[in-house]
Specification:
The protein is an alpha+beta fold and 211 residues long. It contains five helices and four strands. The chain folds into two domains: 4-117 and 178-207, no CATH class; 122-166. The protein is globular, with a radius of gyration of 19 Å.
């Protein structure tokens, strides 16, 4: 089934970058291996797996309802990544989740790297906040100090940030906050509560060295 998250795009941020290599994080650890690096690398990989799992679950739900063959985002699902695995929120059958996680992992390592990017990721929110603040500061410094000019500048900054946030957020996800989970193995899936006590299912993963 075709996944819209993995469909080709013509966004300005889709410039050529090095193709992810299976041993890239393993090699980085061997070269640097400073305290906390492995946890950071693992968190990026888990983050990608979380996004891909949400996409696959949404895809499975769309197929079951026979409403469309095109990927749709199920906004009742959410996730929270840690360096040990990720929490998944929402009504999901455990068997479907187990199947979706394995499918998501396989599709990511097989090359469907766009599954690692999700429009509802908190990265997009952070990118929007930084863009809005930066553009607002820029217009404040560049425009005359009159109240009308400043209000117009603030409105322009907010409008520009709104337009740029989806692409900038996707760019940040793709190259900063996620990585293809070449080193992850699925350990177990359990019912758990997160650090705020919210009920969820926890997908625990383990690190394995790439060859």
């Amino acid at each position: 089934m075709t996944n819209a998250a993995a469909a080709p795009t013509n966004n300005w941020w889709d410039f050529p970058f090095p193709v992810p290599q299976p041993t890239q994080d393993t090699d980085l650890l061997r070269q640097l291996n400073f305290p906390g690096l492995k946890e950071i690398l693992m968190l990026r990989q888990v983050h990608a797996l979380e996004h891909a799992t949400v996409w696959v679950l949404s895809e499975m739900e769309g197929a079951e309802s026979a409403t469309t063959a095109r990927q749709m985002d199920n906004d009742t699902l959410g996730g929270l990544s840690t360096d040990q695995g990720f929490y998944l929120y929402g009504q999901v059958d455990p068997l479907n989740l187990r199947r979706a996680v394995r499918i998501a992992l396989q599709r990511l390592v097989d090359g469907e790297w766009d599954l690692a990017v999700h429009p509802r990721c908190g990265t997009n929110l952070s990118a929007g906040m930084f863009l809005t603040a930066g553009l607002a500061l820029g217009t404040h410094l560049l425009l005359p100090r009159g109240p009308i000019e400043q209000v117009l500048g603030l409105g322009l900054a907010a409008a520009m940030a709104t337009q740029l946030t989806p692409d900038v957020g996707s760019l940040a996800q793709r190259y900063l906050t996620t990585a293809i989970p070449f080193n992850l193995a699925i350990a177990q899936i359990t019912t758990a509560s997160d650090i705020w006590g919210r009920p969820s299912q926890f997908v625990q993963v383990s690190w394995q060295e790439s060859q």
